[in-house]
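<context>
A single protein, sequence plus fold
<entry> Chain with its tokenised backbone below
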Amino acid sequence: MRRIPYITFFLILNIALAFTVEIDSTGQRTDGSKLWDIWYTLEGTRDSIDIRVKAITESGEELPCATFIVPSDTGRIAGDGQRHIIWDIDTDVPNREFYTERIKIQLSAAAAGILPGYCFKGCPLAAGSQHTVALRFDGSLWAWGMNVYGQVGDGTFDDRYTPVRVLDSDSIGFLTDIVAVAAGDFHSLALRDDGTVWAWGKNDFGQLGNNTMIDSNIPVQVVGPGGAGYLSEIVAIAADGWHSLALKSNGTVWTWGRNEYGQLGDNTTFDRTYPLQVQGTGGVGFLMNIAAVEAGRYHSVAVGTDGSAWAWGRNAMGELGDNSTIDKHTPVKVLGPGSTGYLTDVISIMGGNFHTVALKSDSTVWAWGWNGHGQLGDNTLTDRHTPVQVHNFIAPGYLTNIVEIAAGRWHSAALMSDGSVWTWGGNDQGQLGVGDTLDRRRPLPVLSPDTTGLLSNIINISSEYSHTMALDSNGDVWGWGWNYFYCQLGNGIRENATVPVKALFPYR
């Protein structure tokens, strides 16, 4: 057994329990990929408790992307570590699962069997059309940029060139206990650790989900189906354009907001001011066994627990990946390359304006849809109606060793396992971060702020419209691209940036 010396794990409990922890890096998934195993023995009386698992550096510093809440006694966690390193906490379950974009928790109890779990995103940065939302490790929420519709959530409609803290729904305190964030064009979403969803900003299509069409500059709670009660047991959220999505702990998907292309997946084109459940293919039953959801501007996407990819909504450019250009009002399964079978082993999926990007478990990246600016990364400008693999830079071959992906309006981004960021596609505002405004048909590495090297030590990325944001392992937030009118990069200077600039926002 080989120990990993620079990371230790500890558990914080609300009752006295003792744990013995060993870290084994020799563990293998059934597909052969590496993971870290943490084996533990529990001593003491088992009870229903909250277990908080954190990753700590040798110097005692808490790592970002490494706090998860388990609302039960024993079980296992599969999720993201620093730079999306995967680990399992496994007592007696022989099979192992993980998702790099979402943290899936399955709880095992001797008498009760498998219980529902929660999915949290570890390092949340959310780029909206012209604003940005960021979640600090302490659960506080901050935002900056355009605020015409209240999407910054500070109780005003004044644009914010530097980060301000998001208020609570009472306009007095601040929104707390947040575990994930998302941002659409002009609205924002937050997921609380109790499984509730909160929203603020523009609401002309009901995208806030509070059964009104009234904008709000402070968070409002998303109501339940049919407008009754409140949405609960949510484990992941997504937003883009003017619609929102939520994933429940039972693997079902719920949507609300704009729906003219069927992006809500309810087999209609009627806008909805409250959540409704996404139906199954062809309107038969409901979409089930989903592990992750994301939103494109006019379409929605999801990853199944079996590694399948699903899409619905606008399809004029082939962004649904079903080898057609016909809009779909219920989910369709994304086909494989060249329409052979279906896309498999998907662990993350992202939607842009008119294109979609997927990350597979072998760390390769695939894309389909509109390619007018090279955003598919296959070194062409040809639209694709089924997935094509993203190419490498310079040398023949394909982009590999990717742990996270992002999609903007006309560009795409990927985080490599070494902490570097790679971008391709439209670059009119400098959103590729390569020092100029020229489009690229295949990936380039993002430059360092002084342009003498490459941006490094990145652990999370987010893209929307024409800017890209990144969080590094030191807790600093970086951004590049469009910044002229609303300072959505958060650096206090209304100038576009073709290389990364530091936001006035410390993650820690």
User: Anything to note?
Assistant: The CA atoms of residues 147 and 159 lie 5 Å apart.
